[in-house]
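Quick note —
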Amino acid sequence: MPLLTPETLGDLLAEYDFDNGCVTRVGIDDPFTPGGASARIVVDARDREHGWPWTPIEFRLAGLRDYRLEHGKGFSGMLYFDPVVSRFADETHGELLYLDLDPVDGPGQYEPVDAVDIVGRSQCFFAAEQISWHVLSPEESPRLASGSPSSAE
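Predicted structure written out below.
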């Protein structure tokens, strides 16, 4: 699983286009144990190399410290821009990576100045010590799975 940082985000975006993609699964594990929380986020993105089929991309976050997912308050799960990854020092936790799936103006236009900027503006972000990603098979996306919805479980 490649690590995702502000420096490696371009590698991911060279392979996958997240515009009009969908967050299809979010799993938070043990969010109340200091240092032990993790997250798994699955996002359907378009594969640039293979004719643009939808492909599920899984983000894994270790050392999850903060997150927001305002489902039903405006964030519908659809991505209008590619994700943004930023690195900021947090007063409590030290350096964290912020995966922002709801950047206000899109990459290149949205340059957060600090963690407070992301936390205050994004309806879907995750802050963690480490982020990695990998490609899943289409059956692992509830939206892309063939057959009944229960087959994706």
